[in-house]
Amino acid sequence: HRYGAEMEALWRILTAIAAVLMQTFGRSAGQSEGLDGTELDILEADVNLQRNTGESPLYIASQNGDHQVVSSLIKAQADVNLQEVDGCSPLYIASQNGHHQVVSSLIKAQADVNLQNVNGCSPLYIASQEGHHQVVSSLIKAQSDINLQNVNGCSPLYIASQNGHHQVVSSLIKAQADVNLQNVNGCSPLYIASQEGHHRVVSSLIKAQADVNLQNVDGCSPLYIASQEGHHQVVSSLIKAQADVNLQNVDECSPLYIASQNGHHQVVSSLIKAQADVNLQQNTGESPLYIASGYGHHQVVSSLIKAQSDVNLQEVDGCSPLYIASHNGHHQVVSSLIKAQADVNLQRNTGSSPLYIASQKGHHQVVSSLIKAQADVNLQRNTGESPLCIASQNSHHQVVSSLIKAQADVNLQNVNGCSPLYIASQNGDHQVVSSLIKAQADVNLQEVDGCSPLYIASQKGHHRVVSLLIKEQADVNLQEVDGCSPLYIASQNGHHRVVSLFIKAQADVNLQGNTGESSLYIASQNAHHQVVSSLIKAHIDSQEVAKSTFAVEEPPKQLDFVCSPSDSELSHQLHSALEQSGFTESRAALQSAAADVLQQILRSRLNVDNYFVVGSYSEGWGNSLTTLDGRTDANSDIDVMHLIPGREYHQKSLCECDGAPEQHELVNGHIQCSGFASNPADATDGCTLRPALDNVSACGLCRYPPIAPLLPNRVSNIPHAVLEALRKVLTSASSPCHVVYAASPDRGGEELRVSTSFLENRMLRSLTTLQGQLFVTLKYLVKKVICHKNGFNQQGLKSYHVKTITFRMVDETPVEQWKKENLVSLTRQSLQMLLDCVEKSREQDRQTPDTPDRSRGRIMNHFFLSDAAIYLKGADKERADQHLDGIMSTLRTVIDRLPQLLQQFIGSLRPVSDSGTFYFHPFQILPDLRPKPLTKSSTLEYYQIYDVVRECLVRLSRSDCSQRSQESLTELIARLPDCALSAREALRALACLKFGYRETAERVVSSCSGHSVSRGIAWSREKSATEATAEFVMRHLSSRDSAWKFCFEFDQRPKLEFLTGALRECFPLGFSNGVVHFYMNFDALLWALRLELRTDREARAQDWIREVAEREDSDEQELLVAALNSSNLEQVQEIVKKLKMMRADLLNWLKARLQEKWSDQTQEVPSKKRKLSCL
């Protein structure tokens, strides 16, 4: 019907045009009387009749440039201003297509020259956009409004300037167009011409007195954007026109800063010559020299040094240009800075020196240069690690050798007492261990818990290291604080080869720990039969053997797999256990929605849109391998990608960008571009209160390479909707193609890896419950069984291999096979697929001659980039074959023992709570903790809560108690909304205590007695994935007291001197990861204040303490407050056990306080004294 209607409308338009033609060129005299019926119908046609999309005959003729038809229609009284559905008039479409004669006729017929379409674009605007100079001239002459803006605020001059239409620009300027008219983003014609590098247009605008310093809403000036893009001629013109070379944007970045960041050497030279301030820092303290050093732009660095840049200027975290260049391994830059007298021992806030960070990253040449420049080889960071310590930890053999040669102290310990030898022994790096032993390292040096290098190597099962240490006369019976010997811990963990070495070395096999357990006892308890046999053969006394017989004969039930269930039964068990632990499509969608909200908050705080939360936290699956409840596993992290503005690469044969940019070859999924360190992520350690963080810097790539699953005629089992979603990724501005600073083996510094993280994210977010469960199961088997030190300890595989295999399974497995009873079978198929890949790779290696350019360690093809390979993790060229053989052997064993291993996996899963609580505290896990300026608005957006709370803590820690200070703090606290109620009331109570109003503080904490915080999102099994949106999560956060857990970054710990000693120690709580991070749980603080001020009934307070002691999700701060105020000694013991498992920083302090508190109460009760001694 619709087709028929359209054809009828078109017929009417054509008949109308025909009617006009016949009227104009009609028949010769005497013929008109003989017209048939059809011709009479035509003559009566309506010349303004529109088709259903609004096009009139005049519109169509104007569009096609049919001047004679247009003239005829005008003569026939056609409406010259009749618009189609998008608001385009005949004059608009003729102007767009450059039909000058038609435009002239329409103007002459009084067409409205300022009639705008739905987007606010006038005929003059569209003609200016397309560069139709004659049309523009006619429209100007017809009195078109030359400053008429579209809905985005863009004027004709703006769009002509953007597109580089020089003649049009000249005509508009001559017609007195406003050269400073800005669009909604504050961009002027000069700004956009500068951005696009249209030099002639820029010159014309400058000549017309355009404001060369007019900034957009982000504070960027024309000179800034031209400097960012590297348009040298434009920069020169702007400087000549007296542009302010030091004008900074909202982040306080200057033109020189951004040009230095992007390595635009000519631009930098011009700016320096124009007296740009070479030391002008942006809001985080980074100078032009700092950023150029960070990116390794050697020529830029040389120019800045020559211009007297301060080579020791530090940013807010204390990092100097030399530090960041050392961090990224830019050897030439390091040499230039050293030559310019940069302080080689200048430390950042964490105490890390340039030598320390270069040693950590393994940049051998940089380390050599710094040592040669007399860098202090023993300079320790705040947590006590020396350069040698960190190089040993990361197995950088060459660096270790250089530091030892430079007389580094081989026995220097960190705050936990760990020496370089201890750490190398822990990692099992026998080469580093050997070098340290040769350098006379103390083989018996113990850390704070009494563990020696031999002890930790035994615990980890590193038999080669154990052998080396024993050979060097390490004390084989040296016990740690709990009385455990190296032999005991090796027996506990079942390291048979290590135990044999100790027996051979005459270790005391009957040595008991503080609890009286011997090596034989613990080996028997853990069913390590080989170890038990070895110890028995070592002539352990008969009494100990008898004592252990029961344990030997009856190994633990969890290891008894004699009656293994069938694949189908086990599949149902595994599927059910995973579902109960939250591994469902619905909860994965909620995880992704939470990540999207975290990204929104991060971007809003930073006022940028080039930060992306990526990786397992965003993908929905795999953030935790025990339960899907929002919490990140201890050995997992949150990945954040920063897309560097103004840095875009272009691929040969694929790039279609204008302006002939420099292009690079794409080989094996990498663009060939030298000069960058292969260092994809900058990692920040995590702890129990905050997950680890990986910051990844990336540069844009103009377009995606061909994507394998989307190639034409490719057969796939991936649903059509998912394939369409993948296609959208390729063109969406929210998922830009990019490259990261990583390279294939032996190619570091010569190429950049193309990242498909957004495609992977989309694919993982599209997994069904069963597919997601398969992914999680495979990830467990690789991370916890194959690679883990307590599993097979076979290195080389990584999560990315699991991702790829999962994608292949989804691609290759027919939809009817995705049934829960097939989960074990699908897992086995996946492992076999992985094994086949490794075997194929190993076979290719055997058949390939061992040439210097041979790339070893290739495991499989990339799923999205068909011509790219995926490699072993961390295997050097010499050991790749050995790794592949080990992986093949381990995979075969895992496949053989799959039922038992899956039962272990089921046992490790943790069901979600009855309410299905999903934990999301964005201000606890916020990736960027740098403070931002406070808003002046009285109403706070959610993301602004963080900085207000932080500022309140800062002001509370100051000594200023003036009336003005009191009033401003009170006003600031009052701005916090109800979704931060606990934080607001706790801060209010602290302010009262600071300024001496104790009774008011009591009333404040009493007033919110009975109030409950939101511990998370209640997400029942009935919820669907479609309900899990970022909007839902944001509504939840805004409608409840959700902002009560915070992590902050301070240069030093804020001291709340007005609190009592115990509270002052607990709030805020420092982290143990060496970073200046501090934690605040304001709900715990409110309870601490209630207990301190005694505003709540004792029974209610003890109920809260009991709840904290019993709750699985209680954090360190809650447990500390509970332990300090509990009246039940057994309860205190349980709390202390939990804190010990968390490795709480204040554990020793707490024990001392508890000993003091309970000592008087236990003098007369021997049983309590014994319990107290156990603390």
Automatic annotation (TrEMBL):
Ranges: ANK repeats: 53-85, 86-118, 119-151, 152-184, 185-217, 218-250, 251-283, 284-316, 317-349, 350-382, 383-415, 416-448, 449-481, 482-514
Record keywords, A-Z: ANK repeat, Signal
First and last residue of the signal peptide: 1-30
Domain of life: Eukaryota
InterPro entries tied to this protein: Ankyrin_rpt, Ankyrin_rpt-contain_sf
Keyword Signal: yes
Name the record gives this protein: Uncharacterized protein
Species whose genome carries this gene: Macrostomum lignano
The organism's taxonomic lineage, starting at the top: Eukaryota, Metazoa, Spiralia, Lophotrochozoa, Platyhelminthes
